[in-house]
Design brief:
Length: 250
């Protein structure tokens, strides 16, 4: 991925404010960044990007008791010196059991994100925005970046579980949580906790690309269950893009 197209992100007062909050509070949230930057790409680019969530395969590592979700992943290597993103073929994902008591210790392999997602200008803009925040909050570093496309499903008989493992860490350095869309659901409140168990942030993300970023080495997070809204036959879903930033260890 070309560095020019992926990381030429303009600075802004909002970006600097978010970087200060991330350094001081270890998390930040915004309904306008990076949503405003992505909006400049136009509706059709966003719609094409969003449609890639309609072709996610089931996450077969979860059983029915832990809820239903669909998922794809992809990874990138970012080299600061060359200011270049390199897509990786690796689709493996591993978490320590200490971080994920439900699926930790299991080497999982997921379907790779489709070209319509990985080549999307929307993804390039999101990676540029997230990297710009990392540059300000952490410094210019090399990163391993993993993108997780999630769709959480619920129906009349079963809640949707965005975090079936409960309150937890993901086991990364920084985690960006970007809302794609909610359809016919209630619930799904995002919550962040410090190491003492104090709730430092609670909000239900509702706007397109509303974002929360947290220092995953310091804070923990969870999402409350989702319930189907009404009794119609409409599919009840919550689509998220989670982007993990890990300092590269060469």
């Amino acid at each position: 991925m070309s560095a020019g197209s992926a990381i030429g992100h303009p600075g802004s007062a909002v970006l600097f404010e978010l970087s200060e909050r991330l350094r001081n509070d270890h998390y930040a949230d915004s309904a306008v960044f990076p949503a405003a930057q992505v909006a400049s790409l136009g509706r059709e680019a966003c719609r094409a990007f969003d449609r890639t969530w309609d072709n996610l395969p089931p996450d077969t590592y979860l059983n029915a008791e832990n809820g239903r979700r669909e998922r794809r992943i992809c990874k990138f290597e970012y080299r600061q010196r060359e200011r270049h993103w390199t897509p990786l073929d690796d689709c493996h994902f591993f978490q320590a059991q200490a971080h994920n008591p439900l699926l930790g210790g299991v080497q999982r392999t997921y379907a790779h994100s489709e070209p319509a997602f990985t080549a999307s200008p929307v993804l390039r803009s999101l990676l540029a925005a997230d990297l710009a925040l990392m540059d300000l909050a952490v410094g210019h570093r090399d990163w391993l970046v993993t993108c997780h496309q999630f769709r959480i499903l619920c129906d009349e008989s079963r809640d949707g579980q965005a975090t079936p493992e409960g309150r937890h860490r993901d086991g990364h350095d920084f985690v960006f949580q970007h809302l794609i869309q909610r359809q016919h659901v209630i619930g799904g409140e995002s919550r962040i906790f410090n190491e003492n168990g104090d709730n430092v942030f609670s909000a239900t993300l509702t706007n397109y690309l509303e974002t929360v970023v947290l220092n995953d080495r310091i804070l923990l997070h969870e999402v409350s269950p989702l319930q189907k809204l009404g009794i119609s036959s409409n599919r009840s879903t919550r689509d998220m893009l989670i982007i993990d930033f890990d300092l590269a260890d060469y």
